[in-house]
Design goal:
single chain; 7-stranded parallel sheet; globular
Length: 311
């Protein structure tokens, strides 16, 4: 069956991150995940303690070693990635915790040395929408004028009752406020959603996707809920308070989401990388390429594409 999707270099029927980067920079680009040693307002007591109930290490499982300087981290991870892609460019990605939850002067000290490294063509920052103070926004505005900047906002869900259940300490209204501030500055935004959160059914997950699609962000990440050892959520799961999604449920939900997003939206991620030593469930998610292949197969089976049901 012929693939008529316009934003594709291969068999994908959705707008992939790899396609976007290849078209933007003319060659392979990979992210270099870093840990800047930041914290979060629901970790340090500003809004709460303990962090989100699913979080083990600041949502930065594959980021660098926080005990190392960020430049050392950059070199360590870059060299690992180069074994797979020897002729690639880089986007440093401050991933763990909330990477704008500091004064702009501190961010500048962390970010600028990495931004100056050879081969760096952009900069990505993961954070929360309630961690965008005025001085930070001014610095992000400056960065956006100097480099290919992406700010990733962890929304996870539009339902505040779910946010309370997972100790997000962060409302949908706060997300919208932060999102609008970034967009007013012309900053590219990636919105992160988690599918399979406790208490959410298919209809609720689709409602979150619809609300985000209406915002028309440049980028979206869809992530399967991982239940990790040592987290509060692991206790709740083992006590039978909720169940994990099956592969079939997840694949169908992802394809349903893809259909309602505009075809121009770039999907940076459609599943997650679970660590074998920490993942409790769902164990099928360890086979990432199987998950992605099943998504491809379901799109072919339906003869559908990203944006097929977009307004």
């Amino acid at each position: 069956m012929k693939n008529d999707f316009p934003f594709s270099l291969d068999n994908k029927r959705y707008h992939t991150w790899n396609y976007h980067l290849q078209k933007t920079f003319g060659k392979k680009v990979f992210k270099v995940a870093l840990n800047g040693g930041f914290t979060c307002p629901n970790l340090d007591g500003t809004k709460g303690f303990g962090g989100c109930t699913y979080c083990l290490s600041g949502s930065g499982d594959f980021a660098g070693n926080p005990g190392h300087d960020v430049l050392v981290q950059f070199e360590e991870i870059k060299e690992k990635m180069h074994k797979k892609w020897p002729d690639a460019l880089y986007i440093p990605y401050f991933q763990a915790n909330s990477n704008t939850y500091e004064k702009a002067s501190v961010l500048r000290e962390k970010f600028e040395p990495v931004l100056a490294m050879d081969g760096v063509v952009g900069f990505a920052i993961a954070t929360r929408a309630d961690c965008l103070a005025d001085d930070v926004l001014a610095y992000l505005d400056e960065l956006n004028k100097r480099t290919f900047l992406i700010v990733e906002l962890g929304l996870q869900t539009v339902f505040d009752k779910t946010g309370e259940r997972i100790n997000r300490c962060h409302s949908y209204a706060e997300f919208l406020e932060g999102y609008k501030k970034l967009k007013a500055l012309g900053i590219r935004v990636c919105v992160h959603l988690i599918l399979g959160l406790p208490g959410e059914d298919h209809e609720m997950m689709m409602e979150s996707a619809k609300k985000v699609a209406e915002l028309n962000p440049e980028y979206v990440k869809l992530h399967l809920l991982h239940i990790l050892k040592g987290t509060k959520m692991a206790e709740q799961y083992q006590n039978g308070e909720f169940s994990a999604m099956t592969l079939e449920e997840y694949v169908n939900t992802v394809v349903d989401c893809l259909e309602i997003f505009p075809k121009e939206t770039v999907f940076q991620r459609l599943t997650g990388d679970g660590g074998r030593d920490t993942l409790i469930a769902p164990l099928w998610s360890l086979k990432k390429f199987v998950v992605l292949n099943e998504i491809d197969k379901e799109m072919v089976r339906r003869n559908t594409y990203q944006g097929a049901k977009s307004k």
